[in-house]
């Protein structure tokens, strides 16, 4: 299906271009989210008559997104979750959780603006891209911790898991040493 793009779409094209895409992608994504119009003669004429207004609207939205990006870039948001001793979460942190944390921090983010390939399933600091506008992206940091104190230690760069890992490695070293001593004594 041929469509006229109403905004820049990554890996597809710029605003105003007519591109050929699969029917399902056009119907379910581009047309449903008003990112494109079917490339019929009447829509082409309508787009050309409205082109200046659409470009002006896009520039205004881009300007607003850039202002938000200046204040949002590099911000850290803390999310408290329960986790096991190894640092694996009992649940996960999704785009909705990140958007809610940013909203609680004073920024208005929608969950579809947060770009997570996979949900966050471990404690620690995670760099998450945020897509504010087709041409404006920023990175924020999500600090996933068990408590506020742990979040503060993680923010300073301390690892709460390292202490546990070192302890378990020491215990493992003792067990290996004991097993070697027993094996050596039996011969």
Structure notes:
By secondary structure, this protein is an alpha+beta fold. The protein has two domains: 1-50, Ribosomal protein L9, N-terminal domain (Ribosomal Protein L9, domain 1); 72-162, Ribosomal protein L9, C-terminal domain (Ribosomal Protein L9, domain 2), CATH 3.10.430. It is built from five helices and eight strands. The protein has helices at 23-31, 41-72, 95-104, 148-155, 160-186, and strands at residues 2-5, 18-20, 36-38, 76-80, 88-93, 120-122, 124-133, 136-145. The strands form three sheets. Strands 2-1-3 form a three-stranded antiparallel sheet, sandwiched between helices. It has a three-stranded mixed sheet with strand order 4-8-7, with helices on both faces. A hairpin with a 2-residue loop joins strand 7 (124-133) and strand 8 (136-145). The longest helix is centred in the N-terminal third of the chain and has 32 residues, at 41-72. It is elongated, with a radius of gyration of 25 Å.
- Low-confidence runs of at least 5 consecutive residues: none
Determine the mean pLDDT. Answer: 86
Overall geometric form: elongated
- Reported by name, the CATH topology of the largest domain is Ribosomal Protein L9, domain 2
Record the strand order, biggest sheet: 2-1-3
Helical percent range?
40-55%
Structural class, judged by helices and strands? alpha+beta
Helical segment count? 5
Residue share in β-strands? 15-25%
Query: What is the H/E string?
Result: EEHEHEEHEEEHH
User: Any guess at the CATH architecture of the largest domain?
Assistant: Roll
CATH superfamily of the largest domain: Ribosomal protein L9, C-terminal domain
Tell me the number of structural domains: 2
End-to-end Cα distance, whole Å, is: 78 Å
Using only C-alpha atoms, the radius of gyration works out to 25 Å
The tally of strands reads 8
Which class of the largest domain in CATH terms? Alpha Beta
Biggest beta sheet summary: 3 strands, antiparallel
Function: Binds to the 23S rRNA.
Pfam family, one: Ribosomal_L9_C
Domain Ribosomal protein L9: 13-40
Protein name: Large ribosomal subunit protein bL9
